[in-house]
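Weekend entry, working from home. Most of the wet-lab plans are on hold until the incubator is repaired, so I used the time to fold the two sequences that have been sitting in the queue since the last round of cloning. Logging both here for the record. First:
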Amino acid sequence: MAIDQPNAEYTAAQPDWMLLRDCHAGERAMKCGGMRYIPKLSAHSTEDYLAYLQRGSFLNPVAPLIKQFLGLAMRKPPTVEAPESMEGWLSRIDGASCSLADQASLAIAEKLLTGRAAVFLDLPDINHDEELSQADIEEMGVTPSISVISAEDIIDWHEEGGRLIHVRICEEHSEFDRERFETVRQEQIRVLEIDQETGFYVQRIHRKTTGVAKAEFDSVLEVYPQIDGEYLTEIPFWFVGDTSSVEKSPLLDIAFLAKTAFQHSCDLNHGLHYVGLPTPVITGVDPEDGNAPTSIGPTELWTFSNPDTKAFYLQVDAAGFAALETRLEALKREIATNGLSLTQQATGQAESGVSRSIRVVQENAVLAEAVYQVESAFRSAIRLAANAFGEDPDEIGLTLNRDFVGQRMSPEEVKALLAAYQAGTMSLDTVLNNFRQGEIIAADVFNDDEIEKIEESDLDRDA
C-alpha cells in the first residue's frame, strides 16, 4: 500500500463527507459538484446541462444547524482548572493564536458535521538520541501544541487490543518562496506509530517530491518525542468518540434530503423556464421562402401567401408541475422534521420558558454527546501536556458548557433572594451562587471579587 493510500473504511465514507462539506458550504459548492449531485439528462449538451444546473436552488439546512449548535455549546466559555504556568499556553493552545475555546468549538463542529474528528498533541521536536531534561526543554522555548484533525485528514489507523498503534495524517506543507514571490505547497504524510523495536512512540514525516509525475514521498523527519526526558509508550492522539471506527454523521440524512430537494428544484425550475418562455411555431411556410419570418415582436409584420399557414405558441401547461412543487414542499417539511426545528418552527406559536427548555434538551441530545466526547479528548490531551510543563496532570480540570438553554433569573426571583438575605435566612455566598446560576453575574466572577466590588461601591456612596 502506498503511503498516501487511505484504508477501505476511509474510502467508503469519503463520498458522504464530501456531500456534507458541500452542503455546509452552500449552493455554490453544490453546483460545482455538478453531476456528483445533479445527473445529466440524456438529451443535454454541456451548455444545456450547465443551464439546467444553474436554474436550481439549493436549500442549505446544514450550515444554519451547525451555527445554532455551536451557539448553544459555546454560549458559556469552558471551565478550566490548570496551574498558572499553563495559563498562557491555554490561550494559544495550537502554538499560534487559537485558544482552548477556539479549538474545542472547531472539534464540536467537525464531530457534528462529519461524525468524526480527533485531537492530536504534538510534542517538541527533540531527537531521541538527545537526553534533555524538562529544564532544557523550557530553556529552548518549545512547548506542546494541540490541534484538531478532520475526518478527511485521517487516512489510516490501526489498533491492537484496543490500543492505537498507527495513524497516518494527510497534511499540506507550505513555504513561501521569496525569489518567486509565491507560496509553494506540498502534500505530506505524518505517520504516528509505536515503534516495533523500541516500543516507543515515533513520529515520521514524508513529503511529496515536487515536479514528479508519479507520487513519490521523501522522508524528511523522524523524531521520538519525550516528556521530561521520558519516551512515550502511547500515541498522543485521541478520536472524538467511543471508537476509532468511522461513525455516521448525525447530519447525513438531512444532507441526503437536501440533495434530493436540490435535484427536484433543478427539474422544477428547468420546466418552469420553458413554461414562461413559450416557443413560437409556424406551419405551412417553406423555410427557404424569402417571406418566412425571422424575427418576432410587436413591430414585426408577418404576411403569408399560403392560406393554410398557421402561427401559434407551443407551451406546456404549468399545472403539470404541481406534482414537483408538492414533492419539493414535502421534502422541505421532512428536512425541518429531521433537524431544522431549532431554526424553523412550523407552528409559529410562542413557547414558555419551561416548554422551550424541554424541547431544546430533547433536540440537543446529539449536541450533548458531541460536547462530552470533545471534552474527554481535550482533557486527556491537556493532562498529558501538563507533564511537559512539569505539572501534576491530576490538577487539570476541564468542563465544557452543557447549559444549552439560557434561563435568566426573573426580577421576582431576584427580589425573593435579596429579601431572604436581608432577613438573615440566606448567606451572601448562596445569593451570589444563585445569581451566577441565573446568569445575573458572569460565570467567571468569584464571590470574593464580587463582595469586594460591593464594599467598594458602599465606600464610594458614603464618600
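Second, folded right after the first finished:
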Amino acid sequence: MLSVALVVVGFGLLLARISKARINRTDASLQPILGAFDALGTELKSMKEQMMVKERLAALGEVSAGIIHELRNPLSVIVGYARVLHKTLEEEDPKRPLVEAILKEAETMNSIVEELRRFSKAESLKKEGFKICPILFGIRDNLDPSGERLFIPEGPDLKIYGDKTLISHALLNVIENALEVGDKVVVDLKVEALQGLQPRVVISVRDNGPGLKEEDLTKVFLPFYTTKEKGLGMGLAFAQKIVMAHGGKIEMENSPEGGCICRVSLPLY
C-alpha cells in the first residue's frame, strides 16, 4: 500500500511540475495546490532517504550481532587467563605490567562489544506525550550547570509523542557531541509546518567548532566513525537510530557562521 501511495503521489507531483509554469500565469488560485504537491515531493524524497537509512541500519544491526557472537567467547577466555596469570605474579615481576596492559585493552574491547550489543538491539518504544523544553533544560543542567557553554533559550511549549527516555538519550548524545567540538553551543527550537503535512518540531544544535569536511558530513552517523581523538563514535549513530524509530529525521551540515548544525526533526504532538 505504501509503495502504491508513493507512486501516485510521485505521478501527481510530476504532472503538477510539468504544468506549473502555465498554471502560474493563468490561475493563481491553484498555487496552494502546487504548494501542497511540492511539499509532498519533499516529503516523498525524505521518506525514500529514510527507508534507505533504515535498511542500512538493519543490515548494520545484523552484522553487529554476528560480530558480538564471534568476539565474546574468545575475549572472555583471554580475560580469564590474564586474570589467573595476574594473580600468580609478584608485585615486582616485570611481566605484571604486561598482563595489566592486556587486561586494560580487553576492557576496551568489552566496551566496544557492549556498544555493538546496544546498537544491534531492537528498541521497544514506550510512547507518551511529553514537553520537549524540560528535557533540554535537564540536559543543560547536567552538562553545563553554569550555562557558560550551553545556551538553551526559553522556547515555545511544544510537545512530541514518543519514548521520553530514548528521545532524551538521543538529544543528550547530539548536544554532548557539539560540546566536545566547540566551547559554545546554542540550541534552537521551532515548528516546521509544510503545507499538507504533519507539523514537526525541529531542534537545532549549533556549535562553534571547526566544522566538517564535506565527505565527513555523510559519515558522522555511521557506527564507530569519529573525527575526534577520544570516543567510540557511537553517540550520533544511536541518536539517528532512535530518531528514525520515531519517524523523525536527523541531519548535519556546516553553518555559514562556522561550526556545525545538527537538526533533529520529530513529529509534533
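Plan for Monday: verify the second prediction. The longest strand covers residues 185-192.
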